[in-house]
Amino acid sequence: xxxxxxxAYSGGLxxxxxxxxxxxxxxxxVIAVAVDVGQGGEDLEAIxxxxxxxxxxxxYVADARDEFADEYCMPALKANGMxxxxxxxxxxxxRPVIVKxxxxxxxxxxxxxxxxxxxxxxxxxVRFEVGITSLGPDLKCLAPIRDLALTRDKxxxxxxxxDLPISTTKANPFSIDQNVWGRAIxxxxxxxxxxxxxxxxxxxxxxxxxxxxxDELVLRFERGVPVAIDGVAVTPLQAIQEMNRRAGAQGVGRxxxxxxxxxxxxxxxxxxxxxxxxxxxxxxxxxxxxVEREQARYKRLVEVRWSELxxxxxxxxxxxxxxxxxxxxxQRYVSGEVRLELHGGRATVNGRRSESALYDFNLATYDTxxxxxxxxxxxxxxxxxxxxxxxxxxxxxxxxxxxxxTQGGIAGV
Length: 413
What we know:
By secondary structure, the protein is an alpha/beta fold. It has helices spanning 13-26, 44-53, 65-78, 90-109, 124-135, 144-147, 152-161, 236-249, 274-290, 293-311, 318-330, 361-364, 376-384, 386-397, and strands at residues 4-8, 29-36, 58-63, 113-115, 140-142, 175-179, 182-186, 215-222, 225-229, 232-233, 254-260, 266-272, 336-343, 346-353. The radius of gyration is 26 Å and the shape is elongated.
């Protein structure tokens, strides 16, 4: 029986050439799998037909938009997931759902190997291969660009020689990955970190320099998930799409950063994530109202580690699963409404309310009606500072008291 390889297929030059390249190098039949995670652009049926025209024995297309929004973007929202505090895990989030469909296709079509179009210096090779072996430990992984020396020049020559139905232009200087959660842009002149992004880098967002009139909206959350915008019920996918449209029109969600790649190098990345950044801003503020202080403090530590795990391709790891359970528990009371103003590149919360809020007006107010017992504060401070007071007394006893110096001291002393 002829060996079969499932290839993660985008419809672009590298993966289209990869179909024939893999077949010639390994003698295997290639099954192309395209997964729709809301990347837009070309019709997926056209992509499926192109895969067949390029030599695939089977071509499979999966509509994973709702699955991606429900099972991947919403956990990221609950975790306020942002790598290095800035990147909302745009590409990292899509890899595990793509992997899931690749492994499913491998089982369906009897393939022993799963291939992807990643290079040997990026994060995605790790995300794909760790994910594949986590779901299918018996499956082998193949990366034509990395393992079979498929360079871009060779891909263009191969496509031209074999008259493949794909564009072979070198005009586009960028490497772009996008889905409904956001868009990632790299390479080209952006590799010089002194160069600023030009206008043609962006498509999800309009320039925030001359924004339209401010857009104010109300987001309704239930257990950490957006369920309505301005009173209109939405699914997670619809919420992301609508916030992409409205926040994008105001230039919200542009990110330009140098990040630490998993493979050890630093890389300049430009992102657009209008819906993700606006939703995270609203969700964080609702958590400020509804999550207990110590739980919230610990969750912020968990969010950092959760984001690192997802970035590093550990979506299916035991630790990620344990952190998911903690994060899900923190969302029990994260229900209510957040009023958000979108304007000039910013998403600003200016109102919040929740039936499960821990905010008590009568405790917080300084006006008449204040129910806070201020007489309790003196004893609280005494006990709260007791351990520091005892330590300071010991330091003084052994001559280790801090040097207060004389500069700016009291006149005449």
